[in-house]
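so my prof wants the structure for this chain in the tokens format not the other one, which i didnt know existed until like an hour ago. anyway here's the sequence
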Amino acid sequence: MTHMQEPLTAMTGAMEPIELSIVVPVFNEEDSVAPLVNRIHEAMAGFDRSWELILVDDGSTDRTLPNARKELLRPNLKLKIIELQKNFGQTAAMQAGIDAAAGRLIATLDGDLQNDPKDIPQMVAAIEERELDLLVGWRQNRRDGLLLRKIPSWCANILIGKITGVKLHDYGCSLKVYRSAIIKQVKLMGEMHRFIPAWVAGVVPSSRIGEMPVTHHARHFGSSKYGISRTFRVILDLLAVLFFMRYKARPGHFFGSIGLATGSLSALILLYLAIDKFIFGNDIGTRPMLIVGVMLFLSSVQLITTGILAEMMARAYFRDDDTASYIVRQVFGQDQPHA
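here's what i got, hopefully its the right format
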């Protein structure tokens, strides 16, 4: 069996062009995967354009994959199942599905049945009518716990909006519709899927990002993969987003600015001590200010050097970056071998 480390690519060949790809990452959802496929199939029954469903099994340790493969026998459903070699996380699984998507539009949603697939056709119509590149679902009546889910989410949405400048009510909703040509310009890594609107705002004007209310259901199977610790990870990820949005292509400006500020403060301190020593004749050898000045100077040199190295690494990244954040074990589908 061949392990694929390069990013997946959409394969359409001479087949009918696909209008919409629905991407669903799943992890240990053995009870919900069959009802999920059934709900999506029913919701898209009246959709008059071609579409495909892509399930990405993110290294599940239960019967999620075998249960999903049973759905390959369902008639009138173009289904592809991507099995990742191990659990890479929701962001990498979503990236794998997006890379494999052949549709002109791409819809994503969670695999726990909390997102309602019936919203997808309306969102597809809305993204076309409003001429958007990204349409984000807004769970107005969210069916989650108040203390551990809703309150941290509200705080995170406000904080993310203020820092990134992309103001949305619900960054965390996985139900989104994208133009494929736009989302494929964005590389998702780490746990950055919750900041997709901010990343998209880096390649299109924020005016082309919108939202619309969607239905949200309570979880019926399994347990949530998130807890209160997620809030702290969001804060750390948000700092990373802020850095990459402002300094991804010019990290030397970030480190260099701090280095120049530190160096300027060091120069003032050392100049003051030099005047005190050589003009007023005071002893400065045992003064703590001398140590502070020297340490600031060394820190300045280190920061500026780090900035130069970061600039070199950024140029190498933009020149050679074609590494996937996931490894595919096997792909199952109606045009692929089922074993």
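also thought this was worth mentioning. Residues 251-318 form one domain.
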